[in-house]
From TrEMBL:
Binding site for 3-methyl-2-oxobutanoate: 44-45, 83, 113
Localization terms from the record: Cytoplasm
Domain of life where this protein originates: Bacteria
EC annotation from Swiss-Prot or TrEMBL: 2.1.2.11
Pathway info: Cofactor biosynthesis; (R)-pantothenate biosynthesis; (R)-pantoate from 3-methyl-2-oxobutanoate: step 1/2
Quaternary structure annotation from Swiss-Prot or TrEMBL: Homodecamer; pentamer of dimers.
Official protein name in the record: 3-methyl-2-oxobutanoate hydroxymethyltransferase
Catalytic activity: (6R)-5,10-methylene-5,6,7,8-tetrahydrofolate + 3-methyl-2-oxobutanoate + H2O = 2-dehydropantoate + (6S)-5,6,7,8-tetrahydrofolate
Primary subcellular site in the record, as a coarse category: cytoplasm
Binding-site positions, Mg(2+): 44, 83, 115
Root EC class: transferase
Annotated source species: Roseinatronobacter bogoriensis subsp. barguzinensis
Residues the record marks as active site: 182 (proton acceptor)
Amino acid sequence: PIRRMTVPQIRAKKGGEPIISLTSYHAHTAAIVDKYADFILVGDSLGMVMHGMESTIGVPLDLMIMHGRAVVRGTKRALIVVDMPFGTYEESPNMAFRNAARIMKETACGAVKLEGGARMAETIHFLVERGIPVMAHIGLTPQSSHVMGGFKTQGREEETWAAHIADAVAVAEAGAFALVVEGVVEPLADKITAAVDIPTIGIGASANCDGQILVLEDMLGLNPWVPKFVKKYGDLGPAIERAVADYAQEVKTRAFPGEDHVYR
Ligand code: KIV
Ligand code: NA
């Protein structure tokens, strides 16, 4: 049997070949990503991307578990990491453990991710000590967008850098096996990568991070609008529209179903 990428294997990639990662929320896209990615993130961005929410704040735990299970079923190589949604871990280490354990047991994923730096260090330590690998996430943390006043690039003022670097060091020391660095200016991302002994996974950060991640639907061109840091590797939105328009036209003219598509 093909063995999945493990948490120690991801961690050991610090300073080596770049770690390849994308998000995925369902079985069939995950099966494609699985051929190339070291880890797949079932991100809470699914609230916005798949369910039309305005932000990730309203994503329920059960929804993360459902999509997490689908992605685990659709894959066999990559490590699967599932986001802990807003309100399921911040209150206390106990609460975080209870909900992270549910995610691990009900999805069979290999790790969880949560947002926050120094303030989450105690919780990260608590989870890791009890068998739950944790990926951390600092910089632009979308679950805190109401406090930050929107989705704002972090580190534009150099006097804020020390706090971000301290966040990175705190989660690494607490036992996180990797660290997503989102939406920070490039020189700060480079300082963060140099400051920690765990891999940094950049999104809107720097090519010098130890790995990169993008939201799959964004890089496929399924979302009409994407942030500056997203490179569109596909143009699926227009491709889907062409297919749907062709279908509509053929139904209207009774060209579909044709001879090949009916049982004689
Ligand atoms: O939810 C998500 O997709 C994420 C990535 C952007 C890192 O957290
Ligand atoms: Na997320």
